[in-house]
Structures are given as structure tokens and as C-alpha cells.
Amino acid sequence: MGLAFAPGLAHNARMYPLDDLQQDALIEAFNVGIGQAAASLSDIVREPVRLSVLSVRLVPFQAACQQLGAGSNERICAVSQTFSGAFDATGLLIFPEPQSLEVVRLMLNTTLSLEALTELEQDAMSEIGNILLNACTGAVAQIFASRLNSSLPRYQLGTPAEILAPHARDEADLVMLLHIDLLLERRQLRGVIAFMLNGSAMERLVAQIDRYLASLRLG
Q1: CA 67 to CA 6: how far, in whole Å?
Q2: Is 166 exposed, middle or buried (0-12, 13-18, 19+ CB in 10 A)?
Q3: Neighbours of 148 (CB within 10 A)
Q4: Can you list the alpha helix ranges (DSSP code H) found in 46-173?
Q5: Global pTM?
Q6: Tell me: the pLDDT tens digits for 175-195?
Q7: Are 133 and 150 in contact (CB under 8 A)?
Q8: Which CATH class is domain 17-218?
């Protein structure tokens, strides 16, 4: 079962004023990156992979924790990286724990049981997270003509609050949630890419988006 967004929270995402053009520019950038990542993942799993961004939402920290877990004790698997440059953020690739093991099994093309795969999970998920997160931020940096540097990927397992809290400066931080579909011949998996943004980072990101949109109008 995939991660699901709680109904009615789309309006809360408008707490930060992103207009339709700004949202479209973000989705365009992320889909470019996701498309590049799909090609890399296809090489790894040796079958066609389709990736798409279903939605981009900005929600408060507590709302993000609620959306990422059906229950407060439900564990999720996350690979995190910090990004710095044009704007600072922490990116996380997130799957429910059972799905993350299924992703690893498909990636390794093995019939090992899910229990036996747990020892391989950290390295495999870190590689997948590195591919997806860097593809997303790389596309954003290229389209917005900015530069971002990334840390090494870090694997984490825990409840949504346990995963997100270390990356938040305070509970006023926003979380940008990208709901993604990962489609393979044998399986359809759903996950989330999350970016933790404080007010300063959000302002800088919006400034980059506006600069990009202005260049399109002048062009």
C-alpha cells in the first residue's frame, strides 16, 4: 500500500503564496529530473521504469508527519541528503517500510525473502535515493540557472516524526511533498520525495522561480 495524502490538505498547501505559474514551473523542473532518474533506474532493474510527479504540495511540519504515516507508530524508510547553494534544503526519498524492501528486491532482481533483504536494504535504498534526489535538485538548479551542492545519502528507518524532526529547525518549517509514481512491469509503487524548507529557503526558492519565469517572458 502506498503513501496517501490526507484529503482536504491541498488548501493548507496554499499557506505559502505560490501561484499557478510558480507551481507549474516547479512541477516542470521536477518532472525533467524524474525522467532522467527513470532512465538510470531502468539500467539498474533491467526493465522499463516510468516515474512521474503526481502533485507538489507545501504543508506545515506537523501536517507532513500526519500525511506520511497512517498511524503515529507506522515506520517509513527514508534516504536523506542535504543541499546547499541557491537555497538550502534537506531532501528525503520516502517509502513505507514494506515497500522499500520490495523496491530493493526489484532492484537486485532477486527472489530472496523480504526478511533476507533487510541486510541489503541500506545500501540499495541509498543508491536509489541518491539517484532520485540528485536528479530532482539537478533539474531545478539547471532550469533556474543556479547551483546546488549535495551531501552523501543517509539511510533512516522510523516513524514520520522521527525521520523529519532532525531536519526541521522549528515546527514553522514547511515541507514540500512530491507524490511520485514508480511504475515497473511487475509492480506499481508509490512514494514521496520531501524537501524540508525554512522560511529563508522558501523565499530564496520563490525568488529563483520568479527569475526563471521573468526570463521566459523576456525571451
Answers
A1: 6
A2: exposed
A3: 19
A4: 61-68, 97-108, 114-143, 160-164
A5: 0.83
A6: 898 888 888 777 777 889 999
A7: yes
A8: alpha beta
